[in-house]
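Case study 2.
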Amino acid sequence: MALETMAPNPVWDADAYDETVATLQANEDATYTIWGADWCKDCRSQLPNFGAALDAADIADEQIEHIAVDRDKQGPGVEEYGIEYIPTVVVERDGEEIARFVESEDIPIAVYLAEQLSE
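Prediction:
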């Protein structure tokens, strides 16, 4: 089920995040799994900009999976991936986790993940 909160923010300025977008593009073989909920305040504030960043980086829909959790933060993959907070984004390549964003970080999701992917 798609998260409505992943709909790209139409006023997000990709030019202001050109390095972030370039890093996401350079990792074109990565997949993104997003745990969140449309009822979640943090998801509503953070995911639209992340959706816009993925869109600006031309990340294919097939590489992005949205997983909606309930109010008890239960849903597919929660136990397997150790999801405690939402939004959480796990980036994988060839089935191996290469980056993770958890709700409590103090910078935007795309920026945080781009920094991890650059290391």
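Residues 8 and 114 are 18 Å apart (CA to CA).
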